[in-house]
Automatic annotation (TrEMBL):
Belongs to the transglutaminase superfamily. Transglutaminase family. The gene is Tgm3. Keywords: Acyltransferase, Calcium, Metal-binding, Transferase. The keyword S-adenosyl-L-methionine does not apply. Its cofactor is Ca(2+). This is protein-glutamine gamma-glutamyltransferase. It comes from Thalassarche chlororhynchos.
Amino acid sequence: IAAMQPSTNWHLKENARDHHTSKFSSKELIVRRGQAFIVTFNGTEQPEQNLTFIAETGPKPSKLAKTQATFGISSTVSKEGWSAVLQSTSSNSVSISISSPPNAVIGRYKLSVQSTSTGSSSPASLGTFVLLFNPWSSGDDVFMPNKAECEEYVLEEFGIIFAGNKNHINGFGWNFGQFQGDVLNICLSMLDRSLNYRQDPATDVSHRNDPKYLGRVLSAMVNANDDHGVLLGNWSGNYEGGKSPSSWTGSGEILQNWKKSGFKPVRYGQCWVFAAVLTTVLRCLGIPTRTITNFSSAHDADGNLRVDEFYDAAGNHLDRAADSIWNFHVWNESWFSRSDLGPSYSGWQVLDATPQEESGGIYQCGPASRNAIKEGDVDLDYDCPFVFAEVNADCMYWNYEPATGKKTLIFSKSTVIGQFISTKAVGRDDRVDVTNDYKYEEGSTKERDIFKKARKKLGLEDKFDPTAPTPQEIDQKPDISGKFKVAGPLEVGKDLNLILVLANLQSDAKTVRVNMTAWSTVYTRRPVHEIWKDSVSVTLSPKEEKQFPIKIPYTEYQQQLTTDNTIQVTALCHVEGGIQVLVQRDITLDNPAIDIQVLGEAKVNKEVDVEVIFTNPIDMEVMDCVLQVEGNDLLRGILEIDVPPLKASEKSSTKFKLIPFETGPKHLLVNFSCDKFADIKTFKMVNVID
């Protein structure tokens, strides 16, 4: 007989509903592994029992690599491999239910059917479908028993990412958009552009059943280093030639730009952008994923669980160490089992797409089991020492004399790093603190024991470290203490008022020379521009406390501020006859507020007006004002509106129209920028009704 040319009905609606894939807007069938889907086709003249199906994926499908399966019609679902069960037949069509194994390779498959009775006819193609991970199926490595968590960590397209610093946490909205437009295809082509795929396509595809493998590969592909991945990092404070990292409001635009440019890295990303894009990709493929923000996050470049910071005699924070302590750092957690390590290490796994240190020769990080981090099991795969240091490293602050290269320890702290570790709550727009899932209580004996255990496993206990301070240096006690207190609002556009409080801890008078500096920084605390400096000499009587008010006018810092709105204030106190004391504070200034109002009810396919209101809080004109708006199911793409300049204290109202095309709670994200304020963000929940 001639080769059949069947026409196929993929039952897109019913299958998508059963497989939690209805949010994809695709003409192609998208289903999850380990679960049956229905397909009907006609044009077969053969009795059903003579039909054989072939499902295959990748460039070199093979049974051995589990990238090809051949299966006939059977009466029950196979426990191991693929199977087909007859549903119904009519004179010219057959409906079958096809099941894939819960550990099938994910990706795009070709499905064909062949008649076995004639033995000669070549297989007829039924078309293609995409197979994803299945967190709703108990046999899957990514199985998540809690349905509300599946909804949040796989199906939710809106997120809140936390930033700021430990004294001042703020959150902003993000549109993950994993079901929008072409995102799934871009995620699949991301896998085909990885170094592993380029080196050995068939082997790479055969590993795509394993969330550990895919998580690690994608943590490398989201940054541009090594493999021309999605995003180019830039922490310089100068973002010419691209978009500043803080201006993005969602992953969709970044992924689309990457594809449109012929897969040239998109400029520019910083940690939360890398983490947000990785969240999009992993949720899209069906791996439950969330973003995690760690405040006072250590970047331990040399693997000694210690972070060194250097200051000169004038109190300037020197940018000379590979180590650093970031105001915050954002990474990912993905949920899957760790058959390689054992059941106690399953659950949340840390992945980090920000290019910080090489692992296995390229910029990738994880998956590191969160339980392994908490227990100090830093010898387990992958990259546990680096992640352990991010939340646990000890800090050493040194005085460094550039002329002589001499360094003197000012003080060390073991309780600074890894605070207020945060993620968005399930089903609500709140912050949840997960610090206790990463470590035992700071300062407890258990926490110190785990730290020692980690040092021992890394061979640091027995090795002499010439760069480490001596026990004498660590034990020296300062004669005075100091701190910066905030005295007034921390807002861009207002003068910055602080009070330096110095206290003499001894019962004899002390003479102190205080060198103060303020620098604008990026959120990694890398100094960018000096803003202010001053020095005073003071005498403190026994046990006396003195206050020194500091005022940094807006006009002095306005030109120097980075888009992160961060300023580091330092006072290095040289105490006569005693050790130096370093007083330091990182300030994050708030942007002025912006307000969104939806004027009237939001109904499907009906126009509704939205008003965005901004008042210029400063006594100067603001220019180059641009409003960016995005929101899934509310508008297609990104709306960009130029707003006229605003005089001092002037209020502006910008109106635009939406035509929502889906019901339910939707999020509208707004980003407003002008020459004096960078990236003022807000979001609004819009409930769309029929």
